[in-house]
Design goal:
The complex is a heterodimer of chains A (385) and B (260). Chain A is 74% helix and 0% strand. Chain A is mostly helical and 385 residues long. Chain B is α+β, with helices and mostly antiparallel strands and 260 residues long. Chain B has a single domain, classed as Alpha-Beta Plaits, CATH 3.30.70.20. Chain B has a four-stranded mixed sheet with strand order 8-1-10-9. In chain B, a hairpin with a 6-residue loop joins strand 4 and strand 5. The chains are: A mainly alpha (385), B alpha+beta (260).
Chain lengths: 385, 260
Amino acid sequence: MLELAIKGSKRYWGWMALLTAMVGVGFLVYLQQLNFGLGITGMSRDVSWGFYIANFTYLVGVAAGGVMVVLPYYLHDYKAFGKITILGEFLAVASLVMCLLLILVDLGQPMRMLNVIFYPSPRSVLFWDMIVLNGYLFLNIVVGWNVLEAERNGTSYPFWLKPFILLSIPWAISIHTVTAYLYSGLPGRGFWMTAILAPRFLSSAFAAGPALLILLCLVVRKLTRFDPGREQIQSLAKIVAYAICINVFFFLCEVFVVFYSNIPEHTAHIKYLFVGLHGKGALVPWMWTSMGLMAVSIILLVNPVTRKQEGVLAVACVAVFVGTWIDKGLGMISGGFVPSPLHHVNEYAPTIPEILITLGIYAMGALVLTALFKMAISVKEEVAG
Amino acid sequence: MEDSRRNFLKIAGISALGLGASPVLDAFSKEQALQTPQMIQGEKALKATHWGMVIDTRKIHSSEDLNPMIAACNKIHNIPKLETENHEIKWIWGEAYHNAFPEKETNFLNERLEHIVLPVLCNHCEDPPCCRACPTQATFKRESDGVVMMDFHRCIGCRFCMAACPYGARSFNFRDPRPFIKETNLEFPTRMKGVVEKCSFCAERLAEGKLPACVEASNGILIFGDLDDDKSEVRKALRENYTIRRKQNLGTGPSVYYIV
């Protein structure tokens, strides 16, 4: 089926060329990082994880969000989603490719990466994260590919695939749970050390993933002969609406516990993010923007009148995507490191090279996503005749 | 033809997966002891089952009192002097009381403590969270004497240990440190960019029968010895004085005690 991804219009190739150029730029900057060291990023002794790990965390969520189309179709036999499960699975594949690349560029000694396998350490959450992420990538490739091939051949997917499909559902939950455990099990990092971190991660994932999928469905409908369907988009919109509400609710639970108990180790981080600490508050405007975007999206998504208008829905989905990205991609990681365990307020901001490398990885993800979607949609157009 | 090639690729793929998974499975099945290389102690080596340190803050009068111990450590461990504060490498350094003990912050602190700088370093925890976090066992607790050590050559630079350490004791080489070392001590390795490092209680000196460099240079501020030996100097100091440990409530069990 890969041949379908290399037959395309001028517009298709133009887009692919643009993405390749961005990947190229990112790669060149990465070579510079490889040569100099991670000192070209904004990370420091106090904020030792930054933009790479934050975006990694966010994209693990997007990958897990794909399960929101797989689960209703395979577990509840919600037939409408049958048309778009492949899009959810391929979105997960592209997201996971980005996740793994983001981890790679974050390593100080990437050529020693295989030490994680040579000296496996089951007590380290990172070891388990490696297993669940690679496992989920594998599951989505196998399931997506075989289901699509069966669709192309006009048959049903092979019988041995079903266990993999069923396994992929809890597995999606596991990738974001394990990723949250990277943070929430660390003594002395009050911001992350909360049992609601994994549920918060999941709820924002189930908002962000399907929101992106809605936007992608709208793009696909505009650019191709394949229509993902109005019902499908509306069902996804309801999922996003629930998930974003739950996400804000979980956050408020956290705020209550932190400020009613008023334990300084826990309050300091949230204060830093939302009002600033010791006169430093680079993230304050961002965090309030994030809250504003989530509030607006809730209003637009919960209200059926606005949700049913696809133009408004698209705006709401962008608000969800950007709002949760700021929350997780900017606040969640920096927020945990500031103030430091010794109560120094040492702020972090990504540098230009760091942003270019990250953009290169996003372009790589878009490249993979475009090729996979092209394949899937060509099959669907072919079958429709 | 088509079919057999496809089958071949399938089998090759599955075999590759199996080969990749085997060391992982081995780790679960093997005894830990078989994996760890054995180290033979030299005759002169100082022996203990739990190295620990007591810091007598009463003997500190100004931040200058810490300079000799910090300088001694920096010199023998080839610690670079970097221009950017963000990239600093620190094994032992000075912090104000409210930074060393942030949870004990008070408006009415004893005047002496208010004005002095306390030495801080890796606490060589009894249950170190950094070792739990490390995905390659590049940082590990030496079971024979409780020293938390680093293998600079195995570290992949993921910095999970830095996030896990509640004491900010770990430093990362954000760039090649070698051009920033004034005088290289050839008896201790220099590090490369991209790896994490920290205080090792001078394990290399203990093996030669010498006390840690900072202890030697500390003018009696630092006391070092075996916490398991009730006749040791550290145990004597602990018996005779009230001591506190950093973030004791986290249960990491620091092996560094402060007489305040």
